[in-house]
Specification:
Layout (H helix, E strand, L loop, with lengths): L3 H5 L4 H7 L2 E4 L3 E4 L25 E7 L4 E4 L4 E14 L5 E12 L2 H10 L5 E14 L5 E14 L5
Length: 162
């Protein structure tokens, strides 16, 4: 009985694929893992990659905490508002507790920015899809304060009472 290495062939791409992990990036480039060669005579040839695929995705369903406000400059306007989400916890004694998290939502897309500004009100239920960003703000005293915001790519509103 032939071994798998002999049946497939030592230098074939199928053999390399069968015995090494492959990472595919956006269906464009392929990267071999940094595993040692199977055979002492075989040499690994790493493939360099320019860009890799990453995911930064946030989906929030909650209630608007403050009416949207237009900020920024004429060249770079932004609409911001707060969104509240909560988690419920139940304890063995039957007590139920609720923790509320507040999120700062920023809308930069022109069509979405104007729609949010016009049709969103405090207390309204919204689904926000976007990405999280972190930053720093220098306060008047010279101290730096860390910030966290959600940049909205899509905002879906629900009817009140729904």
């Amino acid at each position: 009985m032939l071994s798998l290495k002999t049946a497939i062939g030592l230098n074939s791409n199928l053999f390399r694929f069968a015995f090494s992990r492959q990472i595919f990036l956006s269906s464009r480039k392929q990267v071999d893992s940094e595993e040692p060669p199977i055979d002492a005579n075989e040499t690994a040839t790493p493939i360099t990659v320019g860009l890799e695929k990453t995911i930064n995705s946030v989906t929030l369903l909650g209630r608007v905490g403050s009416n949207p406000v237009k900020r920024g400059s004429l060249e770079h306007p932004v609409v911001t508002f707060s969104l509240a989400t909560h988690s419920n916890y139940s304890y063995p004694n039957g007590e139920v507790s609720q923790k509320t998290e507040w999120h700062r939502i920023c809308v930069f897309k022109p069509y979405l920015r104007e729609s949010v500004l016009k049709f969103t009100n405090k207390g309204q239920r919204l689904l926000v899809q976007g990405r999280i960003i972190y930053g720093e703000v220098k306060e008047n005293e010279g101290n730096f304060r860390h910030t966290c915001s959600i940049v909205a790519d899509d905002v879906i509103s629900f009817k009140n009472g729904a």
